[in-house]
Amino acid sequence: MLFVCLLIVALVSFAEEVSIEVSHENRKFKAVAVWQVPEGVDPAKKGAVIWVHGLLQTHRMREPVTVQREIWVSAGFPVLSPTLTLRVNSRREPYDCSYPLDTEFEESLREIGAWVEWLKRKGVKRIVLAGHSLGGLQVVLFASKVRDPAVVGVVAVAPSKGIRRDHPLISKAEDLVKKGKGTKMLRTSFFYCQEAEVSARTLYSYYGVDRNLGKALRKVDVPVLIVWGAMDERVKDLPTFLDTYIKDKGNVRVEVIDFADHFFRDLAAEDLGNIVVEFLREVLP
Q1: Is residue 170 a contact partner of residue 242, using CB atoms and an 8 Å limit?
Q2: Which pLDDT value is given to residue 92?
C-alpha cells in the first residue's frame, strides 16, 4: 500500500525547493523548504499543510517526514516541508554534534510564522500546521500564541511534552542567561549528542523552560489531531499525560497506533497517513 502511494505521488505531483530569508538578532539566514503540490490542485483554493520535522532534523528525514508528505500529497493536499535553520544558512542536513550551536527555541516558532506568511502571500487562506516530535510541540505552541485566522487545524505526531528536562549544567546555563552571558559556549551533552558545544542560552531554552504541551493545547481553539505510537520510547505515556489538560477539550482528538514507535515505520506509516488524511479532509474539504 505504501509503495503504491509513493508511486502515485511521483506521477501526479511536483516538488520544488523554495526559500525565504529570516532574521535573528539582526542577522539574516536563508531558510529552505520543499513545496509539493498535487497536479491540478490550486493551493489558494484547497489550502495547504506546513509539515515541521523533529529535533535537529530536516525536511529530508525519511520517516515520518518524507513518507507522510508523499502520502498526504497523493491524497490531494499541498504540503510545505521547511527545515528550521538553527542559524545555519540553507540547512539541509541534521545537526552535526561537532558544530557549535547557538540558537534559541523561540526562533523556530518565528520561522514557522515566516512560512505561514509565505503561504499567505501565495494566496493560501487555510493552513494546517503539522509537526513531528519537537516539531509537533512547536506547531501547537505557535497556534496557542499567534492564533492566526489562516490556521484552521493542527496535527501533532508524537509531540514532545514540553516539560523541563534534567541536565547537569542547567542551573549554570540559567545563571549565565540571567547575567546576560547567554552566548557563552558550554562543552556538554545535548540531546542525542554525547558531547557538543552549545551556548548557555541554547541549553537553557531547550532544557530549562517549561512549555507544557497540555497547557498550550488548552489555548488552541481550532481542531487538533494528536497521533501517538504505543511503542514510543521517546515520548512515553502521552495520552495519560494529556488527559488532565484536554479531557474537556472537544476540539482535541488523540489517536493511538498500537504497534507504532516514535517514527511510524512500515505499516504504521500507512495507519498514520490514513488518520491524518481523514483529518485533513475534515478541515480542508
Answers
A1: no
A2: 95
pLDDT of residue 285: 87
Tally of structural domains, the chain: 2
| Ranges of the chain whose pLDDT falls below 70 | 1-13
- For residues 21 and 159, membership in a common domain is answered with yes
Exposed, middle or buried, 94 (CB in 10 Å: 0-12/13-18/19+)?
Answer: middle
> Which pTM does this prediction carry?
0.94
Give the C-alpha separation, 42 to 75, whole Å.
14
What is the identity of the amino acid at 173?
A
* Distance separating the N- and C-terminal Cα atoms of the chain: 24
pLDDT digits (tens, 9 = 90+) for 231-248: 999 999 999 999 999 999
Where are the extended beta strands (E) located within the chain?
13-24, 27-38, 48-52, 79-82, 127-132, 151-157, 185-190, 193-199, 224-229, 252-257
Same domain, residue pair 73 and 176: no
Among residues 161, 155, 163, 105, the alpha carbon closest in space to that of 131 is found at 155
Domain boundary (154, 180, 209) is at: 209
Q: How far apart are CA 269 and CA 258, in angstroms?
A: 12
Report d(CA 23, CA 197) in Å as an integer.
Answer: 23
CA distance 241 to 223: 19
Would you report the helix, strand and coil content of the chain in percent, each value rounded to 5?
Answer: 40, 25, 35
Only one residue has cell 490514513, namely 274
Domain encompassing residue 24: 2-163+211-283
Phi–psi pair at 162, nearest 5 degrees: 80, 10
What does the pLDDT read at residue 13?
66
Same-domain pairing of 36 and 134:
yes
Same domain as 66, residue 188: no
- In terms of domains, do 127 and 143 share one? yes
